[in-house]
Each structure stands twice: as C-alpha cells, then as structure tokens.
Amino acid sequence: MKRITALLMTFVFLFACASCQKNAEEIAVTTSSVTYETGSGNAQSESPESAVNESKSSSESGIAHSESSKNAPSSASTLKATASAFVTTLKTTAARVKRTTVRTPYVEPTDPATTVKATAAPKTSSVRESKTAAPESNTAQAPVIIQPQKHTCTISISCASVLANSDKLKKEKAPFVPKDGIILRETTVEFTPGETVFDILKRACASGHCADNCKYCQAGGIQLEFEYTPGYDNYYIEGIHQIYEKDCGSKSGWMYKVNGAFPNEGCSSYAVKDGDKIEFVYTCDLGNDVGA
Fold first, then answer.
1. CA geometry: angle at 153 spanning 147 and 158, to 5°?
2. How far apart are the first and last CA of the chain?
3. Beta bridge partners of 279
4. For 265-290, b where at least 16 C-beta lie within 10 A, e where not — what string?
C-alpha cells in the first residue's frame, strides 16, 4: 500500500506540473496577440520607419509564437507518454501486490485443553490410480509374539571329599558314592526371577542322574531329602543321593556356594540371579576341606 500511495502522489505532482506549463504557454500566446494589435493601431500616427520596425517586431513575435506553438504539441505528447507509462507501472505494481498479499482468515480462539490437532484430508485417488492400485489384502496380520527373556544358572553336586575320607564313611553308604565323587555334573537350569537356590536344587535332582547313572537315579532322579526349620524359616538339606550328614564322620554334611563363595543364609532364602554358578558340596570337616 505504501508503494501505491507513493506512485499516486508522483502522478499528481506530474499532472500539476503539466497544467502549469500549459497555462504559461497560453499566457505567452495572449500577450503576443495583444502586443501585435497595439502595434498595428499606433502605426497610423508614427513614421514609416516606426511602422517598418513594428512590422519586423510583429514578424519576430509571430515566428516566436509559431515556434512556441510547434513546441507545445511536443510537450503535450511527452506528458501523455509519461502519464501512460505511469498508469502501466501502477497497474503492474497493483497486480504484484495483489498476487503477493495473503490474507489470513480469522480463527476464533479455542481452549488449549480441548484443542484437537487437525489431520490432513486423505488424498482422493483418481480413476486411473484406482484401476492400477493393488487390491487390499483381507488376510489379518499375524500378532507379534514377544518371547520372554530366559534366565539361566548352573548347578552341580559333588561328594568328592568322601573319597579322601573313605575310612570314616559308613559301609552301607559306599554304593551311593560315584567313582569320581560327582553326583551331578554342571547343568544349566532355567528359572524365573524370585526363585531360590533350593528351588533350583529340587528341579535339578528331579530330572538329573549321577555320573554312574546308577539304578537309584534311573528310578526317579537323584534322591533328595530336606527338612523345614521354623526357627530359621528355611529348608535344611539332610541328604542327597542317600548320603546324609554325619555319614562320613561327626563333622560331615552338605553345604552350598554361589560363584565360589559360601553365603551366610539358608539355600531357600538366597534368590538366584542370571548367570549364577551354584555348587552343592559334601564336607567331612565342617567346610575346611572344601574351602569354606
């Protein structure tokens, strides 16, 4: 709008200048006519020389008037061309302003809490696209099944300390001691978070067997006997594979360790972690012979 206003002011100024120039030319022509007529009236009383001079002056004035008349149309043509060019420029500018002007529609303000984001309208497919588009499949997409993460640990059972203290072992227990003292070789067991070492031991014994694969293990897995102690709210392991506490001396019995260390709590209180290494070992000297 500022640019259009400036152009309008320029046009008014040029028009005023042209009007002033035209008035000046009309005044000059009128003055020349009056002078010529006055000179003609006085010629009758003046001398012939004066008449001759006035004739020359009139001729010169006529010539000047003719030249002025010749120049007047030229000035008018120039003004007309300038005005035409100005009008063309004005129209072009107005068209540009119209094209570049963007009016933002008024939108009534809404509550931000209830404002819903607008989504673009789906594009309407043309007839040609609808003919070439692939048909939609009616087959339902198979649900994605997320497999639960597996947690595993290892467990082994050994009574190898008995082999070095065979003189203390009860004779009726000798058939239950494997040749290498390994009752259960290291076995990987899956568990769920929250299970204890006692839970892992029961599961391993129910499905395992000793290294000699004796008839006792073939019948129903590795024998396991335990007792619940209310005072400690724990389970105490009395015997594994028919080998009990004090079967190999008064200081003998079962112990367990996790990752090489002997915990200071019962096996039914120790929660298993992923990757733990559990070992049940039989001691003949209150743990001194097994590194406790």
1. 150
2. 97
3. 156, 257
4. ebbbebebeeebebbbbbbbeebebb
Nearest one of 177, 175, 140 to 162, comparing CA atoms: 177
CA dist 215 and 234 (Å) reads 31
Q: Which residues contact 248 (CB under 8 A, 6 or more apart)?
A: 161, 162, 165, 168, 169, 170, 173, 282, 284
Say which amino acid occupies 177. V
Q: What is the chain's percent helix, strand, coil content, to nearest 5?
A: 45, 15, 35
Residue in 131, 125, 187, 116 with CA at minimum distance from that of residue 156: 187
Ramachandran quadrant class, 226 (left: phi over 0; alpha: psi -120 to 50; beta: rest): beta
pTM of the entire predicted model: 0.51
Category of 245 on φ-ψ map: left (φ > 0), alpha (ψ -120 to 50) or beta? beta
Residue with tokens 């990752």: 259
Helix (H) or strand (E) holding 11: helix 2-42
Q: Which amino acid is at 269?
A: S
Length of the chain: 292
pLDDT less than 70: residues of the chain? 1-3, 15-80, 83, 87, 90, 93-140
Per-residue pLDDT, 50 = 47
Q: Give per-residue pLDDT as tens, 16-32.
A: 666 666 555 555 555 44
At 264 the pLDDT is 92
- Give the up-direction half-sphere exposure of residue 1: CA atoms within 13 A in the CB hemisphere: 1
